[in-house]
Amino acid sequence: MYHILFLLLKIVPMSILSLLAQFVAFFLCLFKNNSLYRSTNINIMLVRPTLSDSERQNLAKKSITNQLISTVDSAKCWVMPPAWSINQIKHVHHYEILKKALDNPNGLLIIAPHIGTWEMMNAWVAKHKPLTIMYKPTGNADMDILVRQGREKLNATLVPTDTTGVKAIFKALKGGGCSVILPDHVPDRHGGEIVPFFDVPTLTGTLAPKLISKTNCALVGLACIKEKDGFHIYCYDLNDEKLYNKDPIISTIALNRSMETMINAHFTHYMWGYRRFKYTPIAENLYLLDFKTIYHKRLEMENNND
Question: Tens of pLDDT along 91-111?
């Protein structure tokens, strides 16, 4: 199965893969009783509760379409050589931000939320400096082989998502190295702090803030977005002093605010299908509730804050 998947991804053009992704997205949005549409719709309502139904559903359709296109584009870059991925990058916005950070003797931590096609970006970043990247198996054997082989072709060291991996990243940063973290992953119940994300209190991982405060490394936010002429990388200068605060709550709030800025700039390219608000005081796993109940709980929370 893996060999067939590998061959198909390698020979099928990106344009055809994108059309297939759009076709699947059309049916997912047509038949709304599926997990991806439901999660996307709920998440957008939570972060933008004042939108009308039609406005929210329009954003949900765009988000799902972009998410599926990004998924097939990522799969394509896993089976292709790094040079191919690098050639897909047509423009880098504010490159001077990244260039300055790469020279920091305390290392560089790249903050890459689930925006666009971060897998395409990894190859371009790795040509500047060796990467240390955490990797958690998906549970699907064929997919794990595909992802691991794709990332191992980069100038990168893959480390597990446990204390061993954390120590490896810490060591890399202390030695002036570079790592990429997706800090909007939902951690284990005891692996983070409840802090606002788009004004919604939710469990947020504290790994990135702890690495930042302990190493005083440089910080850059990166997003890789598919535009009409190819892929564009956007660099963000994450210079809020609170990001370096040793209090994990203060620094995690600051990190969420920084990510919000990046996400708002590319709102429909964010992976809103990801159940980011799984652990929140609003409800015990609110994704199991009906939409109206969640909506009223969201408004109730906002009224209480006022």
Answer: 999 999 999 999 999 999 999
Determine the Cα angle at 104 with ends 100 and 108, to 5°: 90
CA-to-CA distance for 255 and 209, rounded, in angstroms? 7
Let me know: does 169 contact 132? Beta carbons within 8 Å: yes
pTM > 0.90: yes
Interval 154-196: pLDDT, tens: 778 888 888 899 999 999 999 999 999 999 999 988 879 999 9
Q: How many CB atoms lie within 10 A of CB 305?
A: 9
Q: What is the dihedral of CA 97, 176, 137, 193, to 10 degrees?
A: -70
Task: Label residue 306 by pLDDT band (50, 70, 90).
Answer: low
By CB atoms closer than 10 A (0-12, 13-18, 19+), residue 100 is middle
Q: Which two tokens stand for residue 51?
A: 């939108």
- Say how far residue 191 (Cα) sits from the centre of its chain: 18
Residue with tokens 């204390």: 163
- Extended strands (E) in 101-260: 108-111, 131-135, 156-160, 178-181, 192-197, 200-205, 218-227, 230-237
By DSSP bridging, strand 279-280 and strand 178-181 are: unpaired
Going by DSSP bridges, is the β-strand pair 218-227/230-237 parallel, antiparallel, or unpaired?
Answer: antiparallel
Comparing CA positions, the residue from 11, 147, 133, 153 lying closest to residue 82 is 153
